[in-house]
Q: What sequence folds into this?
C-alpha cells in the first residue's frame, strides 16, 4: 500500500465475494471457499464476511452477463438460487436505489441473493495465520526479501530477521512473487494498476448489495461497487472500484510497480468519473463531497487460447513451488486455493486435485492464492481443518511442527475440525463386551467414560521423547493446555458403546453441551468491518 496513505491497507482489502462469475473454474473455487467461511468464523470468533447478495449488471450485447448466467445455471435454479432482470421497471422495483439509463443501450441483470457479499481479506489472512499458529505451525510475520537455492535446500531471506532454510518452499506473495527469485521471473504474469475511489455518504443504504457493472463505455461503465460501509477512520464510504483498461496502465517492472504503490492515489480522471457515475447510478445516496482513493496491483497470467486466465500453482524447480497470478481479485477463493497448494506441497508426486479436477486447469497449473508476506499462508487451511489433516504431512513442507494430536490417546479421539482443539476420551473396555440386552447400571450409553479432556492436548515438548518411547498412559499434567474436563459431557454422547457426535466435519465440538473452547482466538489489529 502507499506509504503516505495509512488507510490504504484497511480500505482496499474490502472486496466482493460471490459465486456468479463468467468463468466456471473460478466459480467452483469461490463456491468451495465460501462453504468454509462460517466454520472459519466460528473457530476464530471473528467475522470477516457479510452477506448482502450480489447483482451482476451487463449490456446484453457483451459476453459478460451471458457467461455469468451460464455459470450460475450450473449451480442452481433460476427463480430460486438466482434471478434474471431485463426491464427497467424490474430493476427499479427490486433495486430502488439503482438507476440505469436505458436510453443508449439496454441492461440485463443477475441477482444472487445468497453466498455473496463483501469480505475483508486482511482479516481472513490474520485469522488463518492465527489458526495455523494455534495448531502447531511456526508463523513468522515479516517481509520476504528473496529466495535462492543453496546446496540441497532453499534459503528464504527475511527482511531484518536473518534467513530460513527449507527443503520445500511455496511462494505466495501476491504481486511481489515475480521478483522474489530468478526462477519466478520467468512466470508469464502481467501486472496492472488497480484503483478505487471512496465517496463518503452521510446515511447507510442497508438494502444495497455488492454490484459489478459492465457496459460498452470505459471508464463510465466498468465498476465494482461496495455498499456504504463504516471504515476504521469512522467515516462511511461507498466504494467505486474501477476495473476497465482505459485508466489502468500495465506495470512493466518492479520499480514501476513500487512507485505506483507508493503514490497511494488514483489518477485524477478516475475521481471525476467515479463521482459522476455514482451520482447517476445512486441518485438517492447522501454524498457529503468527501472522497479518498486507494491503489493496488492486480496480477494475472496471460489468457489461454480460449481467453481463460488461470493463476499458477506448480513447482518451478525441485523444492520450489509458486502460487501466484490472482492478486487483487481472487481473495474470495483463497481458502480452497490455499488448500490446493498445500495438497501439492504435501504429496510426494506433486500436484493433487480436490473437487476441482486437474483437467480443468492448464499443464503448468494455474490457480491463485492471495497472501500477505512470505510463503506460509498457503498451508493454513490444511493445518486448521482436521478432515483435511489426514491427507497431508506437515513435516514434508519443511517447517517445524509439534507432534500431531494422534499420539495423545490410544483409545478414542475426537479431533475438532474447526476450533483448533481436540477431545480425547478413554473408555473402560471392560464394559464393551457386555451383552447388548443386559441392563447396565452405568446409565448413559452403557459404556463409562473414565476421562475426557478438551482443549490443547499437545504434549509438552520436553516430554515428547519419554512418552513416545514407552507405553505408559499420558497424564493430563503432561499436556500443554489449556484444557477442560468434559468426562460427564462425553458420557452423555455415548450411544450403543460408541461416541456419537452429530454434525459435519466442520462442526465445532466447542458447541456441544458441556463443552467450551478453552483457547479462544485473540486477533490483534484486525481490520475491516
A:
Amino acid at each position: 500500500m502507499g506509504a503516505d496513505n495509512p488507510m490504504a491497507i484497511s480500505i482496499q482489502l474490502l472486496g466482493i465475494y460471490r459465486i456468479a462469475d463468467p468463468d466456471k473454474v473460478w466459480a467452483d473455487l469461490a463456491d468451495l471457499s465460501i462453504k468454509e467461511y462460517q466454520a472459519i468464523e466460528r473457530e476464530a470468533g471473528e467475522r470477516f464476511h457479510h452477506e448482502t447478495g450480489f447483482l451482476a449488471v451487463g449490456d446484453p450485447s457483451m459476453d459478460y452477463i451471458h457467461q455469468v448466467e451460464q455459470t450460475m445455471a450450473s449451480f442452481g435454479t433460476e427463480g430460486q438460487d438466482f434471478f434474471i432482470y431485463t426491464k427497467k421497471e424490474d430493476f427499479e422495483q427490486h433495486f430502488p436505489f439503482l438507476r440505469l439509463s436505458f436510453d443508449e443501450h439496454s441492461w440485463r441483470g443477475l441477482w444472487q441473493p445468497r453466498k455473496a457479499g463483501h469480505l475483508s481479506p486482511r482479516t481472513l489472512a490474520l485469522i488463518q495465520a492465527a489458526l495455523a499458529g494455534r495448531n502447531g505451525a511456526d508463523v513468522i510475520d515479516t517481509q520476504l526479501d528473496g529466495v535462492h537455492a543453496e546446496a540441497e535446500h532453499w534459503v528464504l531471506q527475511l527482511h531484518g530477521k536473518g534467513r530460513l532454510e527449507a527443503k520445500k518452499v511455496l511462494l505466495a506473495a501476491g504481486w511481489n512473487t515475480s521478483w522474489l527469485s530468478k526462477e519466478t521471473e520467468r512466470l508469464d504474469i502481467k501486472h496492472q494498476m488497480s484503483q478505487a475511489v471512496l465517496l463518503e455518504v452521510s446515511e447507510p443504504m442497508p438494502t444495497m448489495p455488492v454490484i459489478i457493472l459492465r457496459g460498452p463505455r470505459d471508464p463510465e461503465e466498468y465498476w465494482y461497487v461496495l455498499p456504504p460501509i463504516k471504515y476504521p477512520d469512522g467515516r462511511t464510504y461507498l466504494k467505486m472500484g474501477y476495473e476497465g483498461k482505459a485508466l489502468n496502465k500495465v506495470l512493466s517492472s518492479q520499480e514501476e510497480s513500487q512507485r505506483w504503490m507508493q503514490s497511494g492515489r488514483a489518477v485524477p480522471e478516475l475521481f471525476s468519473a467515479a463521482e459522476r457515475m455514482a451520482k447517476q447510478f445512486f441518485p438517492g445516496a447522501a454524498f457529503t463531497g468527501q472522497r479518498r482513493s486507494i491503489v493496488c496491483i492486480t496480477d494475472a497470467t496471460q489468457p489461454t487460447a480460449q481467453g481463460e486466465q488461470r493463476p499458477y500453482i506448480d513447482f518451478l524447480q525441485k523444492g520450489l513451488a509458486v502460487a501466484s497470478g490472482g492478486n487483487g481479485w481472487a481473495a474470495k477463493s483463497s481458502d480452497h486455493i490455499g488448500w490446493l497448494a498445500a495438497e501439492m506441497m504435501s504429496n510426494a508426486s506433486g500436484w493433487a486435485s480436490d473437487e476441482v479436477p486437474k483437467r480443468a486447469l492448464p499443464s503448468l497449473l494455474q490457480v491463485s492464492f492471495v497472501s500477505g508476506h512470505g510463503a506460509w499462508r498457503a498451508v493454513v487451511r490444511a493445518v486448521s481443518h482436521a478432515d483435511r489433516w489426514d491427507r497431508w504431512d506437515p513435516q514434508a513442507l519443511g517447517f517445524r511442527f509439534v507432534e500431531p494430536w494422534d499420539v495423545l490417546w490410544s483409545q478414542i479421539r475426537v479431533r475438532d475440525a474447526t476450533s483448533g482443539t481436540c477431545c480425547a476420551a478413554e473408555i473402560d473396555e471392560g464394559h464393551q463386551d457386555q451383552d447388548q440386552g443386559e441392563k447396565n447400571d452405568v446409565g448413559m450409553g452403557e459404556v463409562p467414560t473414565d476421562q475426557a479432556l478438551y482443549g490443547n492436548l499437545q504434549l509438552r515438548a520436553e516430554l515428547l521423547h519419554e512418552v513416545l518411547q514407552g507405553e505408559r498412559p499420558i497424564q493430563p499434567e503432561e499436556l500443554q493446555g489449556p484444557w477442560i474436563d468434559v468426562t460427564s459431557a462425553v458420557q452423555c454422547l455415548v450411544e450403543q458403546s460408541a461416541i456419537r457426535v452429530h454434525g459435519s466435519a466442520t462442526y465445532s465440538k466447542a458447541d456441544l453441551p458441556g463443552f467450551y473452547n478453552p483457547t479462544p482466538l485473540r486477533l490483534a489489529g484486525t481490520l475491516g468491518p
